[in-house]
Design brief:
It contains seven helices and eight strands, in the order βαββαααααβββββα. It is of the alpha/beta class and 203 residues long. The chain has one domain. The strands form two sheets. A four-stranded mixed sheet has the order 2-3-1-4, with helices on one face. A hairpin with a 2-residue loop joins strand 2 and strand 3. Helix 2 crosses helix 7 and helix 5 packs across helix 7. It starts with a strand and ends in an 18-residue tail after the last helix.
Length: 203
Amino acid sequence: MSDEQLIIELPPTGTLIRDLAITAINMVRVFGGASISIKGNTAVISHGSLQAAFSRFSNEIHYIYRVKNKGKNIRWPYLHVNDKGTLKRIIPPNELDRIKTYGDAAELFIRKIPQLLGKGGILPVKVGGNSIQLGRGELSMFQLFKVELYETGLSYNMPYQLKINVRMDDSWASPPPSGLHGSLYGDGGRAMALVLSTTPRDI
């Protein structure tokens, strides 16, 4: 029986969302047992059952957030009002009411990963002019990840300076938050430092 595959077209080099996505892809290998291949701007995740691999990955990240976070001095920023409006388009009101911080939003999409990505297929990326469209592109990218656009945006000790607007769909709402979770908790939350698993060569 051949493996199921999810093909992920990666955002341009020099963007935070690319590095977060690659970090998440590497964690699917570690936590989900999937095989991964990254060549240029394309990543392929393979497994006999993607649903099972993403379920294990999702459960592990959820465990890290809910269990290992206890007692740690990790404070997620509150959700921006613009992002609240974005989530309102795709999340039922009873779920939206429970989302106060970006950590809460990330957890929600991490729990939805098996549903959003478990069927495989392609996560496409379109780049044109000063814009990136992830998937269908009907949603604005979360403000937290727009470090390239704002002079006062978050800085993770790397010069993300590509001035570009990003839009996404619900499937693309999960890789960046997943990568952010793994980056933070890989450090144990001690210094609130991001450790991004970027991949400059084929693996």
